[in-house]
């Protein structure tokens, strides 16, 4: 198969406005062009790589670490985990035994929530609902998945009402989520009568903590 580019003998040299033949055939000057760099970017490449890595998880031979939680095993890749979790980044980049271990056991980690976090790491997708938000946020806090922590925090703030604001406040405080507990506290102050009515004055947090002086002295109770 012949080359699409002319060889040295067929090139022409421009001299004094005229073309001088060097080989068997002269090429018109209009056909000789400088070729600039051509930058190409495949927009779907990053997503395709992630999807490919997700498929590779099904083959333990192609994973470089296996996480173990609650008796379940999760083959995965150190690099993907380190990119999504400060916890795993520190574990795999530091001088810890886990940095080179083939299996890493995660104690007191819910396997269902861990599976959701791993799926998110590989796909960027997660479904949060009332049934899984607390365990998912708890595990995300344990393993330092900041994006999931923020998404769960936003979900809790959006779902807040008179029936759950006390529990959300307590949950936010116990898991280091000040934006959640602060939102719940503000909601309680603004809707105290509705909250007390819905819960029949059965407060799950210490009364001295929940009720500011202005509410008590103002005769709200």
From TrEMBL:
InterPro entries per the UniProt record, alphabetical: BTB/POZ_dom, SKP1/BTB/POZ_sf
Record-annotated membrane-spanning stretches: none
Positions of the UniProt region annotated as Disordered: 1-24
Protein keywords: Kelch repeat, Repeat
Sequence ranges of Basic and acidic residues compositional bias: 1-10
Start and end residues of each BTB domain: 63-130
Superkingdom to which the source organism belongs: Eukaryota
SUPFAM superfamilies the UniProt entry points to: POZ domain (SSF54695)
Name assigned to this protein: BTB domain-containing protein
